[in-house]
Design a protein that fits this description.
single chain, 144 residues, mainly beta, UDP N-Acetylglucosamine Acyltransferase, domain 1, seven-stranded mixed β-sheet, 1 helix, 8% helix, globular
Amino acid sequence: MPFSSVLVFILRLFGSKIGKEVRIKPGIHIKYPWKLEVGDYSWLADCYIENLDWVKIGNNCCISQQAILMTGNHNYKKTSFDLIISPIVIEDGAWIGSGAQIAPGLILHSHCVLTMGSVGKTNLEAYGVYQGNPAVWIKERIIR
């Protein structure tokens, strides 16, 4: 992906911390590059990162096509509809499937998987495979 190195360069220019050998596909949307950290050997497809707060993506992670990472929401319990922001942490080896969505404030622990089209509303445990809306643990991820 020859254009990937150009995107990495531009993101670093705007303050992102990007590790080595990171691949970023065209069409990605990143709200605030200076609030993004990506570890080594990770892959970001044409996903949507609404990072009003920090998004930290570890090493060897995959964020698939059309995944949505949202660090902000509104407090619907108040008439002022206040903005609430909270960071997202995606630990090493995690895989976010195509069209999956991640709510503000979540930690996706080491090597977990959020399957295609699923919605993560609570923290995902290490080596768990999660599916559905809201996503629930369905099995252990076994890496051979």
